[in-house]
Amino acid sequence: MKLFGFTLATVSVAQFAGNATLVDTPRWGKQFDGPACFKCEGNNWEECRAQAWEREGGPISCREDKVCSMVERRRGGKIYRVESRCKQVDVCKMEREHNLRPCPQMPSATECNQMETDHNGAETTSVCRNCFQAPEHFDEQEAFMNKIDAAAAQNGLPLSEWMKDSFYGN
């Protein structure tokens, strides 16, 4: 019965993926011709990219109905976790809008912020997200990661940089 369920699930996924354009790749056989994206997570963007090269051989291609999502988490102004992966367009856009939500610790700040501490001196948290859609925007993704790395001393990029539509693709 488990084998039947697995086979049915595989066929369903294959039928759904059948609508996407596929290209031949020497390493993995078939690859989707959607946005390019590093599939990784780490303690900083450099570690994340290194993981993507080690595990996947570099950036992967998302399905055409997905975008590349980038998430950075900070505590006390310092990066402690980053991730990049393919996500559905509507999910990534919704999460990106969460950058503007009020911070739970301090309603006067947004969820994506550059603060180190709140008014009580406690370390604040920050979660910033962005989406990249078109395959030709991969250079912009890498430039964005480099910009984040360069802004580390200033507690990261300002919210306005995370919300720029030029990185959106649409």
UniProtKB/TrEMBL annotation:
Statement: the UniProt record of this protein carries the keyword Signal: yes
Species this chain originates from: Oikopleura dioica
Signal peptide coordinates: 1-20
Keywords: Signal
The protein's name: Oidioi.mRNA.OKI2018_I69.PAR.g11617.t1.cds
